[in-house]
User: What shape does this take?
Amino acid sequence: MLRVETIDVFYGEARALAQVSIQVEEGTIVSIIGANGAGKTTLVNTIAGLLRPRRGHIWLATQDLTRIPPHRICAQGVALVPEGRRLFHRMSVLDNLRMGGYATGTGREFHQALEWVFELFPILYERRHQRAGTLSGGQQQMVALGRALLARPRLLLLDEPSLGLAPIVVTQIFQAIRRINQERGTTVLLVEQNVVRALELATRAYVLSDGRIVQEGPPQELLQDDRIRQAYLGGESLPGP
Ligand SMILES: Nc1ncnc2c1ncn2[C@@H]1O[C@H](COP(=O)(O)OP(=O)(O)OP(=O)(O)O)[C@@H](O)[C@H]1O
Ligand SMILES: [Mg+2]
Assistant: This one.
């Protein structure tokens, strides 16, 4: 469904991504893992159209997204949950969610999508009139995810949804991601530093290091890989299947 072909992305003269290629098959969850500064945000922001690659191409099915502006990429069914959530803190939960649905309007489709978000995160229904800035970090992440779902995406791009959250909340968020994928068939591209969680969820994974893809494969394989254990898991052994 998504094909990123040998893209180079620069900030000024500094190259943040070099020859990066990834593929995401329809209906799967693909994880990109990598340390701070590896280029994860740069990659998802480029797919969402917020940055332009200097070289290479990005395809969504047969459509070339490479030089299309963000709002049109969104209209093609690609929604980004950005790093740090980027909510409107003074606005209510409901108004934040509405921002994600502006393209779908306020008709029946919008209300169905809103019901689905409240089914996934019942707490957001309870808190729908509360200002988003007064929610807990986990609840704010739920709003950010919900807002993206209101665009009714085919492809969901998630930039470190677990950042700064307690383990139990991370579990809730990751369970929701799994449900979105399984129950709605939404394709997911997840970037994470939380390597174990990201690999548990994924169908396939890539390792990004210093702007390059250095490894790829099925998650079980990567979890057994000594280099990955050394680099990201402090060399500790992992729980078995
Ligand atoms: N706006 C910017 N201007 C200049 N350089 C940038 C900018 N944004 C990111 N970079 C650089 O590009 C590289 C990749 O950054 P990026 O934010 O994509 O990494 P990341 O993998 O998302 O890291 P993190 O896990 O900390 O979020 C880093 O070297 C970073 O310093
Ligand atoms: Mg980042």
The chain has a mean pLDDT of 92.
